Amino acid sequence: MDNFQLKIDNSLSAAGTGNGLFGKLKKLLFIDKLNNGVGIALLLVLGVVFSAGIAKFGAIFGALIFAAIIAVWVLAGIIVSIEFGILVLMVMAFMLFMLMRIGVSGPIGILMDALQVMLMISSLVRLKRERNWELVRGPVSIAILVWIGYNVLQFANPMAESRMAWVYSIRTVAIVLLSYFVFVYNIRTLRMVRIIFKLWLVLGLIAALYAYKQEYIGFSAVEDAYLHSDPEIAGLLFIGGHWRKFSIFSDPVVFAYNMVMVSIICICIAAGKFKIWQKVLAIIFTCLYLQSMLFSGTRGANVLLPAAMVLFAIMNYNKKVLVFAILGAMFLLVLINIPTSNPNIVRFQTAFRPNNDDSYNLRKYNQKRIQPYIQTHPFGGGLGATGTWGKRFAPGSYLANFPPDSGYIRVAVELGPIGLIIFCTMVFTILRKGINYFYRIRDPELRTYCLAMTLVIFAYNVANFPQEALVQYPSNILFSVAAALITVTYRLDREQNRNAEQAEPELIKY
Predict the structure, then answer these.
(1) Is 11 among the domain residues?
(2) 459: domain range?
(3) Of 11, 283, 450, 469, whose Cβ has the fewest other Cβ atoms within 10 Å?
(4) Are residues 266 and 342 in the same domain?
């Protein structure tokens, strides 16, 4: 953000601006600041046009003009500062489906793709200018490139029923991971790391509060129309006489998973070496996040926090952590077994008794019956062969009506055992680096951030077993952010140590 500045030299004279169109505009806008006859005339014309537009088309005209002005400045900010673009990308990833739901017209999904392409191009230009390849090298980068390359090669899979399914699937499955290189190359300061964490937590808080609104006040008219637009939607989201809440996201699963991720970050902050008020605020946020998560009715999310806390206790093993781990385990046991009539808690309890759940048993059956296909297709049935794209582009194929449910099962079915090995190797590489860097980082703040991101990566991949956790916004973007921040925190710590060693005076030898 430091380089997001527009410096104007007020000492420039009219002669110094040139006689061309650009020079005249520069003088009018930045030197005279419209404080001349031409500027006043221009403002009068704009005022008349603006008034006439509102009179003829109503308030929507003013809203469109206002949105256009904001869009121009945001676009300018992204061009000037890649760091600003990263923050815009995170906000858009969170708000994408909310904008669609409230009726914002236009190809918002394509705008997200365009934003990512802009950031990638800007990063390539910066990389070419600086030639600092060290920032993007390493085992994690190699693992991600291998995974992306394997998905690209799936276009030529002879077992694939449709190439169009590949076209529609490659973006969310693999190409979004290219944003890892945007993050790891352009996040270079501790200040930027802090801004990203603050923004992440604030966006999570907005999502949590909106879920409270849905739970205790009700759905908006647009949301209510969506819920009753298809009997299948009601069948999935209306359970036990209670609507599952999805907040600002596409569905309750994405909402619940992302509430767990911000809770993990807050718990790490509360356990780290931060100010008391920051710890208290983190604990309050955690309570808000976790209670709102229960409104989603997503049982798979209930297991994620305990799983992440097990890894947290292992990585931070000491007497204090051991005591809190025992107390947390006792509280969890009580919560699982306590009699209650609250539908949210009842659904929470069933997550820890999967064998008694019909949907879980059905998933086990589906996974068992697809095993022979996986074993006989080393490269899988083609990217996008299952789910929505399979039904759309290859409706008569064997995999079109197979419900993968699990992200790992989808990888095994569509990309084969080889694809599953590559995917698991990528995840293992990221987690291995996160654990190693956690023990090597000296700075307490950076150490906490590295721990939080390692636990987030771990939780996302636990979540990827019962559901497809890594292919929907904002989870796919946040996965790349977390993976990049693991590397960035270690790099910043090394830079701090190097600078500290250089600043130390040499010992005088007698």
Answers:
(1) no
(2) 135-495
(3) 11
(4) yes
Tokens of 168: 């529609």
Under DSSP, the state recorded for 239 is E
Is the domain of 144 the same as that of 122? no
Whether the pLDDT of residue 16 is over 50: the answer is no
Domain boundary among 94, 126, 158: 126
Reported as half-sphere exposure (CB side, CA atoms, 13 A), residue 508 has a value of 1
Say if residue 301 is exposed, middle or buried (CB neighbours under 10 Å; 0-12, 13-18, 19+).
Answer: buried
Report d(CA 221, CA 103) in Å as an integer: 12
Contacts of 350 (CB under 8 A, 6+ apart): 299, 356, 357
DSSP alpha helix (H) spans, 154-275: 163-173, 179-186, 190-216, 221-227, 231-237, 252-271
Q: Which two tokens stand for residue 460?
A: 């996302």
Closest residue by Cα to residue 83 from 143, 176, 1: 1
- Consecutive H or E run containing 111: helix 108-130
Spatial CA neighbour of 481 closest among 264, 184, 260: 184
> Which bin fits 138, alpha (ψ -120 to 50), beta or left (φ > 0)?
left
Does residue 83 lie within any of the structural domains? yes
Distance between CA atoms of residues 119 and 182, nearest Å: 7
pLDDT tens-digit series, residues 170-223 = 888 888 899 999 999 999 999 999 999 999 999 999 999 999 999 999 998 888
Q: Are 167 and 113 in contact (CB under 8 A)?
A: no
Which tokens is 416 given? 């084969």
Distance CA 129, CA 96 (A): 33
pTM for this one? 0.83
Assign 132 to helix, strand or coil: coil
Give the span between the Cα atoms of 172 and 473, in whole angstroms: 9
Omega of the bond leading into 417 within 30 degrees of 0 (cis): no
